[in-house]
Fold:
Amino acid sequence: MNRLFKALGLLTLALCFSASANQQTVGDYVIHYQALGSTFLTPAIAKAYGLQRSNYTGIVNISVLHAKEKDSPGVPVEITGIAKNLLDSSINLKFREIREGKAVYYIAEVPYRSDETIHFQIGIKHGRQLNTTLKFKQNFFTD
Structure:
């Protein structure tokens, strides 16, 4: 089981730092964010984290790091989110905090239909130093 957690952590880091991952700098913090179809996760990883692996379920992954620290550990934050489709139907995202060693990140599931664009509004707060709303969109497709 411990290997599964490490594997998801490595997957998370790979997604956060890959060319396709997105980031936004706010003050002294860098927010990494990614939304992808849950079928990108292996069945073992999805099971280990209690995630639904489906052609119609996406995973939102958020991590916050200190911008000025090389090898920054993850920053624990308060996080809330809403996902809206083009018909303006909204879903409250339920983020779960995952801690693996120094890594801290947050994942939530979001349902979608094939070829659907989801707009995300993610509220991120860390004491008085960080209080921002991250906005992005992701197109989801079924396999």
